[in-house]
Amino acid sequence: MGFLKKLFSRGEPFVPTPTQTVPGLDPIVVQAVENLYPNPEDQKQVFEYFVSESDDKNTFNQLARLCISKGNIEKLKTIYARELYEFFVESSFSNMRKAEEWVKSITKSRD
Q1: Residue 28 and residue 73: Cα distance in Å, rounded?
Q2: Spans of all domains in the chain
Q3: Residue (of 72, 31, 32, 76) closest to 53 by Cα position
Q4: Are 73 and 42 in contact (CB under 8 A)?
Q5: Rounded Cα distance, 41 and 13, in Å
Q6: Residue 62: DSSP 8-state
Q7: Interatomic CA distance for residues 94 and 60, integer angstroms
Q8: Can you tell me the distance from the alpha carbon of 25 to that of 29, in angstroms, rounded to the nearest whole number?
Q9: Whole-number Å distance between alpha carbons of 4 and 110
Q10: Is residue 68 a contact partner of residue 84, using CB atoms and an 8 Å limit?
Q11: Average pLDDT of each block of 10 consecutive residues along the chain (111 residues)?
């Protein structure tokens, strides 16, 4: 029975714990930005991009863009729909659960 439960359960829900609150952004996006961009000025640029400049307000797509950019702000700002689509097709970044796993994997311990 334990095997089936493990196979079909989602496990513990992921609860993001960013150090900042950014109006207009989901906490999981804020946490991903904090970990990809350790410099506060870079974080500010990325937050402004997602809140003001980007037309994409979808949390999953924002996380995918962050993953594709690999911490490069200029790359983040030049990801187009085709590249995003190709990323979804070619990677294991296929649903929000996978996106949460990615954020967990880049999150640095705050001990």
Answers
A1: 18
A2: 27-106
A3: 76
A4: yes
A5: 31
A6: H
A7: 9
A8: 6
A9: 34
A10: yes
A11: 51 84 96 95 97 92 95 94 90 89 84 43
Question: CA 103, CA 5: separation in Å to the nearest integer?
Answer: 25
Question: Residue 89 to residues 13, 74, 93, 95, 105: CA-CA distances in angstroms?
Answer: 25, 23, 8, 11, 21
What is the per-residue burial (b if ≥16 Cβ within 10 Å, else e) of 27-60?
Answer: ebbbbbbbbbbeeeeebebbbebbeeebeeeebb
Query: Side chain identity at 106, as an amino acid letter?
Result: I
**Residue 56, amino acid:** D
pTM over 0.85: no
Amino acid in the structure at residue 69 = S
Amino acid letter, residue 20: Q
Q: How far apart are CA 86 and CA 70, in angstroms?
A: 16
